[in-house]
Amino acid sequence: MLFKKKKRKITTGASPGDKFVAQLDRGVKVNTEQLAEMMVTSSTVTKGDMLNSIDSLITQMYYVLQLGHSVKLRGFGTFYVKTKVKAVNTADEVTADTIERITIGFIPDVEVRDRMKKVSITVESEEGASPTP
């Protein structure tokens, strides 16, 4: 994982002012097509079949999540429906309007969290200097 040194103006805390932070260089976004191409290299499935499988997975996950269920992908983690609701004084006041937000949350499996903790990190140095591992 590559991080870059960035200067930030910090306005809160015990010692505000100009500070330096490590900012993740996210690189380019990998799309479904590219992911399918990557997956084909480690399987016997064609790229078209892989794309159909990924599309079907997404469609079915969306359907199940819309019903309020969670989806656990073995070895990766659990996607779940996350809500923000408004509290009211009586049961009669609870309506669809008291549901302020519905989104999707994700909880990675323990193995995934452990692997992310062990990922190799490189901090890109200032111009002319070598990277700091």
Describe, in plain words, how this protein is organized in 3D.
The chain has about 130 residues and is α+β, with helices and mostly antiparallel strands. It has one domain (about 1-10, about 20-125): Irregular (HU Protein, Chain A), CATH 4.10.520. Helices cover about 30% and strands about 30% of the residues. The chain is built from 3 helices and 6 strands; from the N terminus they run E-E-H-H-E-E-E-H-E. Strand 1 (about 1-10) and strand 2 (about 15-25) form a beta hairpin. Helix 1 crosses helix 2. The radius of gyration is 22 Å and the shape is flat.
Mean pLDDT: 92
Q: With helices defined by DSSP (H or I, 4 residues minimum), what is the helix count? A: 3
| Number of DSSP-assigned strands | 6
Give helix and strand order, one letter per element, not per position: EEHHEEEHE
CATH architecture, by name, is Irregular
Work out the helicity level: 25-40%
Structural class designation: alpha+beta
- Beta strand %: 25-35%
Question: In the CATH hierarchy, what is the superfamily?
Answer: IHF-like DNA-binding proteins
CATH class group: Few Secondary Structures
Specify the overall morphology. flat
Number of structural units classed as domains: 1
State the separation between the terminal residues, measured CA to CA.
Answer: 10 Å
Give the biggest beta sheet: 3 strands, mixed
Low-confidence runs: none
Strand order of the largest sheet: 2-1-6
CATH third-level topology: HU Protein, Chain A
Structural Rg:
22 Å
Show the helix and strand layout:
Layout: E1 2-10, E2 17-24, H1 32-40, H2 47-66, E3 71-73, E4 77-85, E5 99-108, H3 110-117, E6 122-124
Helix pairs in contact: 1-2
